[in-house]
UniProtKB/TrEMBL annotation:
Gene coding for it: nagB
Any one cellular-component term (Gene Ontology): cytoplasm
GO molecular function, one term: glucosamine-6-phosphate deaminase activity
Site residues by UniProt (Part of the allosteric site): 146, 153, 155-156
UniProtKB keywords: Allosteric enzyme, Carbohydrate metabolism, Hydrolase
Protein name, entry field: Glucosamine-6-phosphate deaminase
Catalyzed chemical reaction(s): alpha-D-glucosamine 6-phosphate + H2O = beta-D-fructose 6-phosphate + NH4(+)
GO BP annotation list: carbohydrate metabolic process; glucosamine catabolic process; N-acetylglucosamine catabolic process; N-acetylneuraminate catabolic process
Enzyme class per UniProt: hydrolase
Domain of life of the organism encoding this protein: Bacteria
UniProt KW Hydrolase keyword: yes
SUPFAM superfamilies (UniProt xref): NagB/RpiA/CoA transferase-like
Amino acid sequence: MEVIILSDPGRIAGLVADAVERRVRATPSSVLGLATGSSPLKIYEELIRRHRQSGLSFADAHAFLLDEYIGIPRSHDQSYYSVIRREFTNHIDIPAERVHSPNGESDDIAGEGARYDESIRAAGGIDIQLLGIGTDGHIGFNEPASSLRSRTRVKTLTEQTREDNARFFPSMSDVPRHVLTQGLGTISESRQAVLVATGAAKAEAVAAAVEGPVSAICPASVLQLHEHAAVIVDEAAGSAL
Ligand code: GLP
């Protein structure tokens, strides 16, 4: 696992955008694994800028979201499908039908995870997976105690994660309790994984992920076993390393 500490979020975004751009230029049909949350926003801004200014094209790319809420429709402005379209994919040339997310409205919610994993496999597997990290060490929505080999499935959010995400909803009672998330095993199959974190609130989770034991209690620690993973943080998020 490569650990990189940079002085500001703009440099983090530039470095990660370089990695995505290299992949997409080398293989235009690359499969991108996308994360929501505030952490990757600057990366998306930088990729949109490169698309507009230097012709970086995603016309042949595929994108798969990490996770999705259950209990709000896809059309809700806080569904991760809506968020990723608004923040990123609507502003580049990737065809809308190649932007995939777990279907939180599925009639067969228990079978949706296996269907999603199969669609990732059918697209050729994820080439580069972007990740943020929760304050409790979760990646995607794999909360502490998630199996290190888990597949895409339904999870129940912890109160901590619901509180962390309450800022996006009118009140705490509007925050969904259940989600679909790529599993830690699914994420581990990506060819390259890049976790980004900024701010002191992430420092403990980052330290546990990088320096702690590989343990289901800190789901992000599974990246220690990944053959091509990087953790890229600012000085505040790296302050407990
Ligand atoms: C949510 C998402 C995660 C994200 C985390 C941190 O729980 N499911 O993918 O990493 O939030 O979000 P932020 O980057 O806003 O701190």
